Amino acid sequence: MRRIIAMMGQAAGPYRPQWNRAVVITVFGALANGLTLVLLLPMVVSLLSGDTATGWWLVGAIAALMIAEGFLRVGELGFSYNLYPTLMEDIRLRLGEHLRRIPAEELALRRSGGLSTTLNQDVTNSMLSVSEVASLFLRLIVIPLGFVIALIVIDPRLLLGAILGAVVVAFTLARQNAVTARSQPAIARADAETADRIVEYVQGLPVLKAAGQVGDRSERLVAAMHAQGRALRASIDQASFALTGAAIGANLAVAGVVAVGASLVLGAELSPVMAAAVVVAAAGLAEPLARAAALTSVFEVAEAAMGRINDVLAIAPLPTPETPAVLTAHHIAFENVSFSYRGAVAPAIQDVSVNIPAGSLTAFVGPSGGGKTTMTRLIARFADPQQGRVLIGGTDIREVTERELMRHIAVVFQDVHLFDASIFDNVAMARPQASEQEVLDALEAANCGELLARLPDGAHTRVGEVGNQLSGGERQRVAIARALLKDAPIVLLDEPTSALDTESEVMVQEAIDRLVRDKTVVVIAHRLSTVVAADQIVVLDAGRVREIGDHTSLLASGGRYAAMWAAQTRARGWTLAQDALAHQTSV
Fold first, then answer.
1. Which of the four, 2, 228, 284, 476, has the lowest number of CB atoms within 10 Å?
2. Cα gap 282→571, rounded to integer Å
3. N- to C-terminal Cα distance for the chain?
């Protein structure tokens, strides 16, 4: 309970004063409830023994405590209904903001299903488990404690009868804590794995259908569900042992109190009225003590959920400058930059120095894994280099805020991500203050006019999850429209035409030509024919810069670029020859 309250206080963040107030109200409510039940014992004894003055005084005290508890419970519920939803929203917003600020590498190491479970299920479990059960758990602490005090006042020997049962209950609860602490991580891993596989299953249905892996043939999803079921069954079996042990211990404690009380009555050391009252009170404690084991497991679930939330919040974000700079120019420079992904054997880029003049078009080319994508990610500050600096306009990008940096950069990825909203909304997010006409103009400039004309709701047609209602070329044009509307002075292009058919490529290339006009452009190119007009071409291989120059000078040098150009030229010739042969055969 102490750990939970401490973790909840930490999670409450700016709402910690309200959370502390809610805890105080809960504690006082539990005390009032506990004292009410504790005073019942002397009240019954006083009334039955003829001490009516004391009895009626105790009746009045109990009534006052019950009224106080009612008011406190109303206040507690008010805080619960108002504070806990606010806390859940605040924690989710803080998690979302934190995820936005952590390095992209750290985000890539965590599966989307697991993060979704943390943002949704773990936040709910951590809050609702505490808000619904904390009050009852506190009462289960206060009431037995009050009963013990009452027994000590009446006759300490009565406690001797409860020792065996108390030991059984304590052992059971300790074992339950240990078992739950071990089982919760396994359940959490199984839940996250199942969530990942469900996301994978839904997003990959076309591929799964083609491979015959749908329904009962979806082996990865089925295996994850079986593992989840095994983890849950193991936890339930272990919890059943704890609940049984707690019930046995509680009954043994009651039986022990009854036995000692009976022997004291027979020895004329305790009045029959007092003994009867003690037995009735002890019998009433058996069920709450047995339920304590179940509540303990609930708190372990809440603590495990809060632990996973804190694990995400503990990921170190990219540092923010104390006195942020402002970008005033748009030439880009890499100064002796080295960067390694966590766990990688070799650096992704090593000791790279490149200058990209403002208003120029620079292409990064080279084999897969050469460091091209890493270079563009470092420009957008998806991560910070371990050595060297990346500068824009002569300013280290670590000295500007994320908002300031991204105000100057537009990115068009090869794999476009669109949100399940309208085309208009997906474009307008680049500049929310833009007018409707400005958004439509950007769509027109991106060659989306024909697309909008044939859609039922035009620009207000929903694109589906990740834009799956649109073709690859259509998604690329919508992404370019988004970049056009942003009108940032720096444009990063991750080969946006590599996977398109000829017609779509022509339309996307025309849109790109409008996008990059008068901009500082960095493009990742796989097909060298698309960057022959670049101002400079940077050849990257194994994380190092091998050559820099324009198309003509690199061909003349006869180096790596010339070899790549020759290989792609031969490949195109082979394709043309195959097409011609197929045509002759068909004729």
1. 2
2. 89
3. 83
Q: How long, in residues, is the chain?
A: 587
Question: Which value, to the nearest 10 degrees, does the dihedral of the CA atoms of residues 280, 282, 284, 289 take?
Answer: -170
Q: Which secondary structure element, helix H or strand E, spans residue 351, and what is its range?
A: strand 349-356
Q: How far apart are CA 428 and CA 422, in angstroms?
A: 10
Instruction: Report the distance separating Cα 369 and Cα 383, nearest Å.
Output: 17
365 phi and psi, to 5 degrees? -130, 165
**Cα 215 to Cα 196, 204, 229, 230, 465, distances in angstroms:** 17, 13, 18, 21, 21
User: Which residue ranges form the domains of the chain, and what is each CATH number?
Assistant: 2-309 (1.20.1560.10), 332-560 (3.40.50.300)
- Angle of CA points 359, 364, 370, to nearest 5°: 155
Beta strands in 366-414 (DSSP E): 387-392, 395-396, 409-412
Give bridge partners of residue 387 from the DSSP assignment.
338
- Whether the predicted pLDDT of 575 surpasses 50: no
Ranked by mean pLDDT, the top range of 246-250, 516-520, 558-562 is 558-562
Bridge partners, 412 (sequence order): 493
Q: To which H or E segment does residue 339 belong?
A: strand 332-339
Are 381 and 367 in contact, with CB atoms under 8 Å apart?
A: no
DSSP, res 316: P
Which pair of structure tokens corresponds to residue 155?
């006759």
Contacts of 227 (CB under 8 A, 6+ apart): 190, 193, 194
Phi, psi dihedrals of residue 308, rounded to the nearest 5°: -70, -35
Q: Are 428 and 439 in contact (CB under 8 A)?
A: yes
Cα→Cα distances 574→226, 530, 570, 577, Å: 50, 19, 6, 5
Query: What are 285's two structure tokens?
Result: 């404690």
Q: How is residue 237 written in tokens?
A: 């079996």
Separation between Cα atoms, residue 159 and residue 401, nearest integer Å: 65
pLDDT in tens, 398-442: 999 988 998 999 888 877 788 888 999 999 998 889 999 999 999
Q: Residue 137's CB: how many other CB atoms inside 10 A?
A: 20
- Name the CA radius of gyration of the chain, rounded: 35
With 0-12 CB in 10 A as exposed, 13-18 as middle and 19+ as buried, what is 333?
middle
Integer Cα distance of 150 and 309 in angstroms: 42
Q: How far apart are CA 253 and CA 273, in angstroms?
A: 20
β partners of residue 152: none
Element (H, E) at 353: strand 349-356
